Amino acid sequence: MIDYEVEPPGYVAKTHTLQQLSSGIAESEVIACYEPSYGSTSGVAAWTGGQRIWSVIHDPAQADGPNHILWEGEPPVEFAALLAKAWDDNSRSDGIDYVFDVPITLAGNLTGFNESRKLPRGTKITALA
Description:
four-stranded antiparallel sheet, single chain, 4 helices, alpha+beta, globular
């Protein structure tokens, strides 16, 4: 499902929707990702049983700038490697914010979905309420 109506940090603010999606009959895991078409904040969160179990947020407007990352809970193991590489790339870049991609890449690796890639033919998208 994709919700194009959120504003930062919309995927966190719509907790009621994410609680409902993750606590249905089969108690699904829900991965919510925020990737703006403008701005520089990004984030990902996982929900199960109506509870957010982990989240990762990047907001370069914070004091540590493009190296900012905030996580709660225990993100998947691959998060540490993605973050280490992004921090290393940031240290060698000329103004490119590589940490921005960490939450988005993590969400893509977990779900197989990436906004910038074409979806497989026949993929059904349902808008969130």
